[in-house]
């Protein structure tokens, strides 16, 4: 068995991203890889009490053990709740007539053009 494994630690902001490759011990955890990478020196705002971590797009615990070739990802906290953003966008579309007020879907053009006949 090899005495080291190769892993990557990544973190990104909208205007700056970092991918750091490093060799660590075979029984190293996600937290140990983050500490060994020095990425917290580049991005002092990283707070592992606030930021979630993952391996290859799947969230994990900082105590999870890494395998050779794993990519450790540090996720930024969400600025807004995605459900709330979608809800506000749907409400705005209803107000502007771009969505059906009952179903929330696209308005039916056939329904809007119906004219009632009077005798």
Q: Topology, please?
A:
Elements: E1 5-13, E2 16-24, H1 30-37, H2 39-42, E3 53-55, E4 58-60, E5 71-74, H3 82-95, H4 109-112
Parallel strand pairs: 1-5
Antiparallel strand pairs: 1-2, 3-4, 3-5
Write the CATH fold name of the largest domain: Ubiquitin-like (UB roll)
Number of helical segments with 4 or more residues: 4
| CATH structural architecture of the largest domain | Roll
Largest sheet: 5 strands, mixed
Tell me the helix content: 25-40%
> Can you tell me the number of structural domains?
2
Write down the overall mean pLDDT.
Answer: 84
Query: For the record, what is the CATH homologous superfamily label of the largest domain?
Result: RnfH-like
Reading side by side through the largest sheet, how are the strands ordered? Answer: 2-1-5-3-4
Radius of gyration: 24 Å
| Order of H and E elements | EEHHEEEHH
Ranges where pLDDT stays below 50 over 5 or more residues in a row are none
β-sheet strand percentage? 15-25%
Shape: elongated
Number of strand elements: 5
Distance between the termini: 90 Å
Query: What is the CATH class of the largest domain?
Result: Alpha Beta
Class per helix and strand makeup: alpha+beta
């Amino acid at each position: 068995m090899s005495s080291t494994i190769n892993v990557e630690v990544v973190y990104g902001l909208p205007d700056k991203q970092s991918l750091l490759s490093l060799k660590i011990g075979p029984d190293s955890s996600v937290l140990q890889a983050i500490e060994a990478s020095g990425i917290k020196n580049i991005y002092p705002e990283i707070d592992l009490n606030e930021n979630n971590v993952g391996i290859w797009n799947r969230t994990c615990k900082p105590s999870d053990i890494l395998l050779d070739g794993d990519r450790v990802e540090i996720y930024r906290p969400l600025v807004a709740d995605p459900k709330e953003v979608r809800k506000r966008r749907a409400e705005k579309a209803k107000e502007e007539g771009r969505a059906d007020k009952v179903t929330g879907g696209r308005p039916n053009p056939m329904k809007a053009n119906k004219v009632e006949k009077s005798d």
